[in-house]
Write a structure and sequence with these properties.
The protein has 97 residues and is α/β, with parallel strands linked by helices. It has 5 helices and 3 strands. InterPro entries: Ribokinase-like.
């Protein structure tokens, strides 16, 4: 889905006071304001790393490596008081067997 469509849908949800759930797979460049509207933002470990490494202003430095579940969670905190779902790739692979 094009980023512009996601942003427009997120804005429409906000104006209608409707919860905006975003499973960002595959990762596309979105403005931090669009990401903040997602509650929850759902990504796997690889998607979280890809998202947070993009120069969109959504990432910020931290001590915890982003490849750990805690790192995904902590790096998601800057998105606002919303929820971030993050699954490790090894866990997802075990689930897919």
């Amino acid at each position: 889905m094009p980023p512009e469509t996601i942003a427009a849908f997120a804005a429409r949800c906000a104006s209608a006071d409707v919860r905006f759930v975003l499973n960002l797979a595959p990762v596309v460049s979105l403005a931090a304001s669009t990401l903040r509207r997602a509650d929850p933002l759902i990504v796997n470990e690889g998607e979280a790393i890809a998202l947070l490494d993009r120069p969109s202003g959504a990432a910020r430095s931290m001590q915890e490596p982003p490849s750990t579940p805690l790192g995904c969670w902590r790096r998601g905190l800057h998105l606002g008081d919303h929820h971030l779902g993050c699954e490790s790739q090894s866990r997802a692979a075990r689930r897919g067997r």
